[in-house]
Design a protein that fits this description.
Rossmann fold; about 575 residues; five-stranded parallel sheet
Length: about 575
């Protein structure tokens, strides 16, 4: 008998043998047992996860001499013929090469006849999304009302390309990609049954390279056996697949932890001299950085880590050297570097730049820490509570800057990457940049203003977000006038709508203890915004602005009101 590759030799023959798709196989088993078999199915998912295999098993379940049964015997003539692909009642058609309307018309004529020897005629259309629009339309009626004892199974990697009228006529099953642990366990079982020796590291390399596809993993195992023989070593598999050793990734982590640009450049030189594919190394680094991030967040024993058990203590030790924010930043830098390696020439240059960013990123101060220094609170990393305070301060500053936006041109932003950070600023720096033109309140007492503000913030937060932009409040008799500056015209118009106006009138009348008529108006200019020269002088005198200019080496080039943008 001719040699049979491992992927075919170990192809599942029952639903129980299908790896990682229990949500599909359990449903099909129950449908057969309860005699609720559908006339059409769509199996979709990435390559090599068991779509066509499951379709063949379903065909055996329907035509087995002991069936219909959820567990075919795989011994009767019908099961053997389906396994060998020679059954006249199970037609497996490649829709990529038989995608035209003429082939579908022939198929429609074929299914009109009764099964030759089995109970059901099963039509398996592989890569069904390749059918032309004409062929799909020709299949619709037959797919909706096929002849008795005919079952259609459409397998596809791109279900979104199937026309909606086909998807509405069939039951759709989504096959998921397999996890690292599932592929590794399947490979270990097959290696044991084949009486081969393989190192755990080699299993991990093959399982990661499979990228969720068990068939790809088995093909790689076949390749490794051809290269290494009966004893498969980790180093041999890495050499075969062009995967760098874990020691190289450890050297990368050391370079980042030591903030050594020299070590990073020497690492690239080593990879280049040994003939490694630099983009493959970058992707291995991304995988390693993800494992470190998961170990930091969820612990080294988390099943989310794509690594064997013996590597997990090393991952835990490395993850302890960095914060969660650092590892997230490293992850993002490596993803951007991988994109550069794929799209741009000179991969060595872009890999060197990417690794230098990793080395220097550890020197960057977090935004919260810089803000704390500007506010005179010291360089210590703020707690979660102080981070919320910083965030609210940023929002306040943004609202203040709306009246007059300061455009700066920093000259030395890269200075934040220097080894030595600037000394903290004096503690006398205020928390708010500057106040806008003072709001005027005519006819309102302080207690009334506080009561209005409290009521709106508690009951109508969205309404308060609009009302707080009013520059002037006037209460005259039974009428409350709210004046908005010209740059807030849009908010004034939104507030004049019926629903927000009714809500505002209700709240104000309740707080003031009398029915009020509320009017929203644009400020005529009596409290117009200050001139550009006044705005510039105001920001130049502000301590926080001066501190920011000193910190980042910038200068104020122009000051404009938002309405002038």
């Amino acid at each position: 008998m001719a040699y049979q590759v491992i992927a075919r030799k170990w192809r599942p023959q029952t639903f129980r043998e299908v790896v990682g798709q229990r949500h599909v196989t359990q449903t099909l088993e129950n449908a057969i047992t309860q005699k609720r078999l559908a006339h059409a199915y769509i199996f979709c998912g990435t390559r090599g996860v068991g779509k066509t295999t499951t379709a063949r098993i379903l065909a055996k379940c329907l035509n087995c001499v002991k069936g219909p049964t959820a567990t075919p015997c795989n011994e009767c003539e019908a099961c053997r013929e389906i396994t060998a692909g020679s059954s006249l009642d199970v037609l497996e058609i490649d829709a990529a090469s038989n995608r035209g309307i003429d082939q579908i018309r022939e198929l429609r004529e074929m299914v009109r006849y009764a099964p030759a020897s089995g109970r059901y005629k099963v039509i398996i259309l592989d890569e069904a999304h390749q059918l032309t629009d004409e062929a799909s339309n020709a299949l619709l009626k037959t797919l909706e009302e096929p002849p008795e004892k005919v079952v259609f199974i459409l397998a596809t990697t791109r279900p979104e390309d199937l026309v909606d009228t086909i998807k509405s006529r069939a039951q759709l099953f989504q096959f998921r990609s397999l996890t690292f642990q599932e592929i590794a366990a399947a490979l270990e079982h097959i290696v044991k049954e084949e009486k081969l020796e393989i190192e755990p590291g080699a299993i991990a390399v093959l399982a990661r390279a499979a990228e969720g596809s068990l068939r790809d993993g088995l093909s790689l195992l076949e390749q490794a056996i051809a290269y290494s023989g009966d004893k498969i070593m980790d180093a041999q598999v890495r050499e075969l697949l062009g995967v760098v050793a874990e020691e190289v990734l450890d050297d990368l982590i050391v370079a980042i932890a030591d903030r050594s640009a020299e070590k990073a450049l020497q690492l690239v030189q080593r990879l280049h001299a040994e003939g490694h594919n630099l983009q493959h190394f970058c992707r291995e680094a991304i995988r390693h950085m993800r494992n470190l991030l998961v170990a930091k967040v969820s612990g080294a024993e988390s099943p989310l880590i794509a690594a064997p058990t013996d590597e997990r203590p090393r991952l835990a030790r490395q993850s302890e050297q960095f914060s969660e924010e650092d590892l997230t930043r490293f992850f993002q830098i490596l993803i951007a570097t991988d994109d550069d390696l794929r799209r741009k020439p000179d991969p060595r240059l872009h890999l060197e730049l990417g690794l230098l960013r990793l080395v220097n990123s550890a020197r960057l101060a977090p935004l919260e820490e810089v803000i704390a220094e500007l506010r005179g609170e010291g360089p210590a990393r703020p707690s979660s509570a102080s981070r919320q305070t910083s965030a609210s301060s940023i929002k306040t500053n943004a609202a203040v800057m709306a009246a007059g936006t300061t455009q700066t041109t920093p000259q030395a932003m890269a200075s934040t990457a220097a080894p030595e950070r600037a000394a903290p600023l004096p503690a006398s720096a205020p928390r708010v940049i500057a106040k806008t033109a003072e709001k005027q309140f005519s006819g309102l007492a302080t207690a009334q203003l506080e009561a209005i503000q409290s009521a709106l913030q508690d009951q109508q937060k969205f309404l308060w977000s609009m009302v707080e932009h009013a520059s002037r409040w006037e209460l005259a008799g039974g009428e409350m006038n709210l004046y908005f500056p010209p740059e807030s015209r849009a908010l004034a118009e939104m507030l004049q709508a019926r629903d927000p106006m009714e809500k505002l009138r209700t709240v104000l009348s309740t707080v003031m203890g009398q029915p009020l008529r509320v009017c929203v108006k644009l400020d005529s200019g009596r409290n117009s915004a200050p001139r550009a020269s006044e705005l510039r002088a105001r920001f130049e005198e502000d301590p926080i602005v001066r501190a920011m200019l000193e910190r980042f080496g910038g200068k104020i080039s122009e000051v404009k009101r938002r309405s002038e943008d």
